Amino acid sequence: MGGESFTAPAENLQNALWTLGGVPREHRTDSLSAAYRNLNAEAAADVTHRYEAFCAHFGMIASRNNPGEAHENGSVEAHNNHLKTALDQA
């Protein structure tokens, strides 16, 4: 994924889920276009399938916001900020 393999973010997300002791119903991301920029079509499809399989393994629905809709990033980033705040307070 453009200098970072699929394994690195998958391991980090897995560790976060284990630390939290649960999983959300939905794992929402931005469109991840930067991650696919340097991949050919076959490699991009492989990453997509691996991400979907990863989410299915944990029972999460994989979703993403729409490319070019910058206002949708706020919903993804807001949840991340809420989580960080809750962890800091704990």
What proportion of the residues is helical, as a percent range?
A: 55-70%
Alpha-carbon distance between the two ends:
33 Å
Q: Biggest β-sheet, characterized?
A: 2 strands, parallel
SS field, number of helical segments: 4
Per the principal axes of the C-alpha atoms, what is the gross shape? globular
Order of strands in the sheet with most strands: 1-2
Provide the gyration radius in Å: 14 Å
- The helix/strand class is mainly alpha
- Mean pLDDT, as a whole number? 77
Strand share of the residues?
5-15%
Number of strands: 2
Number of domains: 1
Low-confidence stretches: none
Describe the structure.
It is a single chain. This protein is mostly helical. It has one domain (18-89). Helix content is 58%, strand content 9%. A two-stranded parallel sheet has the order 1-2. It is globular, with a radius of gyration of 14 Å.
